[in-house]
Amino acid sequence: MDLDAARQELEEFIPHVKNISDSSIKKMAGRDLMRFKEFKKQGMAVRFGRFTQKENKQIRKNVEEFLALTGIDSAEKLLFTSRYPSDKDTIHRLKTEHHFCEKISEGIPRPWRLIYYRARKIFDPNNYKGRYTKEEKEKLKKYQALHGNDWKKISELMSRSNLSVAMKFSEIKSAINYGPWTEEETQKLMSAVKDVLRRKLTAENANSLSSLEQPDSDLWIEREQLYQALPWTEIEARVGSRYWRQCKQKWNSVLTRKLTRGQKLYRGTNGLRTKITLIKRLYETKAEDASEVNWDELSNAIGDVPRGYVQSKFYRLKVSFVPLWKRRTFSEIIDYLHEKTLPDLEEKL
């Protein structure tokens, strides 16, 4: 199949296919296209976004079955073969002979590449090493001075994941201020977010910018664009006095305030109505996992608020009303709120 034909066929399953590189299209045509067509016959749409608990279990099952089939003795060897140079040739041969790409993606209607990355995250022992010690922080600063932002190299030296070392360095290098945000800091944050969003939207589609000069509105970009992932390390550098996580939390609070326009949605009678609506809508979704919930639709049903705000309200609900909630599945929490909490809230209202 030629490149244009492959891109055209993939567009049925991946709307943003025009933004994917030619080399990735070639790989997807070989690894994914037939899978996508088979899932379509089964009435299953190609998924993106966060993986569900069910999908994570399937990935674990696929990896464990492949290990049993090939005799490779650990998931780390299978997924991080470069860490075992003496076994590399044997592992690559076994992967080819036993169709690793097909086996690891069985039963999961997602692009193979995303499944592979998710498997690496699940099975990387370097992801779960707890807090950094003082000695590790000093090593991290030393390695970054030697190797710059080569996080792959540094992660190997530190036996931590790439993301972990990058985010930790971002945190410890900043002149962190834990006090209240000043007006100057907030303005720097707003300016940085505005610039990166404007640049990203302009690159994707010049027509997707709404009017940036509306004097009567703070919503200078279409609402749905405000929720997308932002380059927080870049924004951190622009602000200068806060590390990336603080910038993200502050932006979420600013965004919530702007989009609610000062409405007291979660107080008094309005607060009760909001809790009731949230529980009912969550129950109606019949979702087995939080990642299956369309939080944007929920935010629209409750008020003009960010989905992160709605998610935080759900968190408060389960912590406040659901006993032993950490031991329950997502669907069990929703069922409890619907059966036990909802009647009490309605009676109170």
Automatic annotation (TrEMBL):
<dbReference type="InterPro" id="IPR017930">
    <property type="entry name" value="Myb_dom"/>
</dbReference>
<dbReference type="GO" id="GO:0003682">
    <property type="term" value="F:chromatin binding"/>
</dbReference>
<protein>
    <submittedName>
        <fullName>TTF1 factor</fullName>
    </submittedName>
</protein>
<dbReference type="InterPro" id="IPR009057">
    <property type="entry name" value="Homeodomain-like_sf"/>
</dbReference>
<dbReference type="InterPro" id="IPR001005">
    <property type="entry name" value="SANT/Myb"/>
</dbReference>
<feature type="domain" description="HTH myb-type">
    <location>
        <begin position="124"/>
        <end position="161"/>
    </location>
</feature>
<feature type="domain" description="Myb-like">
    <location>
        <begin position="173"/>
        <end position="255"/>
    </location>
</feature>
<dbReference type="Pfam" id="PF13921">
    <property type="entry name" value="Myb_DNA-bind_6"/>
</dbReference>
<feature type="domain" description="Myb-like">
    <location>
        <begin position="124"/>
        <end position="172"/>
    </location>
</feature>
<dbReference type="GO" id="GO:0006363">
    <property type="term" value="P:termination of RNA polymerase I transcription"/>
</dbReference>
<dbReference type="InterPro" id="IPR053078">
    <property type="entry name" value="TTF1-like"/>
</dbReference>
<dbReference type="GO" id="GO:0005730">
    <property type="term" value="C:nucleolus"/>
</dbReference>
